Amino acid sequence: MAFRFTATRPARLAAALLVVCWASSARAEEASSPTSQQPAAAAATPSPSGQKGGAGRGAAAPAPSAAEQHRLPPDSTTTQTLALPGRTLNFTATAGSIRIFDDKGEPQADIAYTSYQLDGADRASRPVTFLFNGGPGASSAWLQFGDAGPWRISITGESAVSSATPDLLPNAETWLDFTDLVFIDPVGTGYSRFVASGEDVRKRFFSVDGDVNSIALVIRRWLEKYDRLLSPKFVAGESYGGIRGPKIVRNLQTEQGVGVRGLILVSPLLDFRDFSGSSLLKYMYSLPSMTAVAREARGETRGRVTRADLADVERYAQGEFIVDLLKGQADKEATARLTDRVATLTGIDQAVSRRLAGRFEVGEFRREFDRRNGRVTGRYDGSVSGFDPYPDSNTAHFGDPSGDPLMAPLTSAAVDLATRKLNWRPDGSYQLLSNSVNRSWDFGRGPAESVSQLREILALDPKMKLLVGHGLFDLATPYFASKVLLDQLPAYASADRVKLVVYPGGHMFYSRDGARQAFRAEVEAVMK
Questions:
Q1: How far apart, in whole angstroms, are the C-alpha atoms of residue 56 and residue 49?
Q2: Strand locations in 424-516, DSSP E?
Q3: Within 13 A of 62's CA, how many CA atoms are on the CB side?
Q4: Per mean pLDDT, which range of 103-112, 278-287, 396-405, 486-495 is the poorest?
Q5: Taken in order 464, 524, 137, 405, is the CA torsion positive or negative?
Q6: What whole-number distance in Å separates Cα of residue 378 and Cα of residue 381?
Q7: Sign of dihedral through CA atoms 298, 301, 302, 304?
Q8: What does the pLDDT look like over 161-204, one tens digit per residue?
């Protein structure tokens, strides 16, 4: 969830140099870190009054440092029992944080995590999976409470409204049966926060490489802290996690000394370049999903639209459509063919399609699809619609009816879990989706892509597997983009190692029971 486009910013040399030095100083960090293997409270405990080094009776206690003022509370570990259909899971849950230091040993940020480890399992053979969302600026709440965690809330139908009660219910489709789980919130999301001040530290963390380096380091530190370096390790990322995930695995393999068995990507974006500037590929990538939305609305198939129902559109998109598109508007016959066919497939008025030459930006499609009724479709799920607050305006002023209503229940669920079930009570607000982080993100010299790292990690380890899941109605990160890019991988990325699965649903396709159940089975197969 929470994939957003952000304007590319120029690379900054100072931030880049700081990022480079992180990995080489990781071991030195831990040697100087008072929290590398201890709860956070241990380092903050003052000497008893009257003892050597203490303040002494009657003396004023020293003022806490800025880092200590911002410190998250000590880790909270609780034992939990989850009653599910046909089985009961007993596990240990920990809500806590890992502190990140710079090359000088100065504290920089506290990265919050929530982990679940099944009781009685053999640590050497039990898989552990590290999960994060995207944004940039999103916490891990969507994957935790919508898909893989022990508890979930309903985020579809009547439950997908802001005023819905976020009841935490046992999740029958939790992945905990076959893997331990660690949900990570990058700095600026969830309860994760900076403990250092200044613009330099923000620039470092809010960049493609700095973000990757910090999360990879947190993964290694968690493995060391809980004696899990011998466990089979997996990484799962959603949305912008498609950029993060391959880069983090590459960093773990080559910088952190941590091998990864498999990468799971949920509704990923793999290459920003295809959705920016004058690229024509974005029109090809989004056409099957727009058609899926139209066919679902028209009820052209019995039951839900499936990917098999879109075989004709996929062939057209990669064939006649892209050929006519490349001919450009200078070729009037090609343009006429394209605009009329696109209007028929998408259900958009033919006059509108001709005005736009059949080149529909996602925002234009969302507004035009049901404009006659004053409604707009969702970006995360085009099969969900809502009222246009300004239906008569010449310009678009609307949110996302498939995403915005989830902000309140997901935030409340995350706070309720941490404070009530896991007994962890940080001060400050929980950031489900931070616009500040998103606006501040530095993409470096150009639009980010991770296909390069996908090639490298699959080539480096012939046993590693990749699973990519998408929803048919996702207009934010359309499934067809991943399909085309995965088809370009070399022969060593064979079908037994790389798999794409597509379900009826949107960006959070796991909100639908059938898709969540089917995807869980695919994930379990990767880990066997």
A1: 5
A2: 465-471, 498-503
A3: 14
A4: 396-405
A5: positive
A6: 5
A7: negative
A8: 888 888 899 999 999 999 999 999 999 999 999 999 888 899 99
Nearest to 430 by CA among 188, 190, 109, 97: 190
Q: How far apart are CA 123 and CA 114, in angstroms?
A: 18
User: CA–CA separation, 216 vs 210, rounded Å?
Assistant: 10
**Among 214, 198, 236, 206, which Cα is nearest to 112's?**
214
Q: Are 506 and 381 in contact (CB under 8 A)?
A: yes
Contact, 98 vs 111, CB < 8 A?
yes
pTM: 0.86
β-strands 107-118, 87-101 pairing: antiparallel
How far is residue 463's CA from residue 262's CA, in Å, rounded to a whole number?
9
Q: What are phi and psi of 509, to 5 degrees?
A: -60, -25
* Rounded Cα gap, residues 207 and 223, in angstroms: 24
272/323 Cα distance (integer angstroms): 22
Buried b vs exposed e over 37-50: b needs ≥16 C-beta within 10 Å? eeebeebeeeeeee
**Distance from C-alpha of 520 to C-alpha of 367, rounded to nearest angstrom:** 34
Quick: pLDDT tens for 339-351: 999 999 999 999 9
HEC profile of 204-231: HHCEHHHHHHHHHHHHHHHHHHCCCCCC
Determine the 3-state secondary structure of 98 from DSSP: strand
In what helix (H) or strand (E) does residue 117 lie, and over which residues does it extend? Answer: strand 107-118
Which is nearest to 145 in space by CA: 127, 170, 128?
170
Which residue from 363, 385, 378 is spatially nearest to 471, judged by alpha carbons?
Answer: 378
Q: Which of 37-41, 74-78, 101-105 has the lowest mean pLDDT?
A: 37-41
Please, which residues have CB within 8 angstroms of residue 435's CB and are 6 or more apart in sequence? 137
Do residues 144 and 131 touch, judged by C-beta distance below 8 A? yes
Cβ atoms < 10 Å from Cβ of 437: 22
To which residue do tokens 């639009």 refer? Answer: 447
Q: What would the two tokens of residue 19 be?
A: 């990022």
Side-chain-facing half-sphere of 301: CA atoms under 13 Å: 15
Considering only residues 79 and 38, tell me which one the structure prediction assigns the higher pLDDT: 79
Residue 234: how many other CB atoms lie within 10 Å: 26
Q: Are 43 and 477 in contact (CB under 8 A)?
A: no
C-beta separation of 25 from 216 below 8 A: no
Look at the block and give the residue holding tokens 């736009």: 356
**Amino acid at position 86, single letter:** G
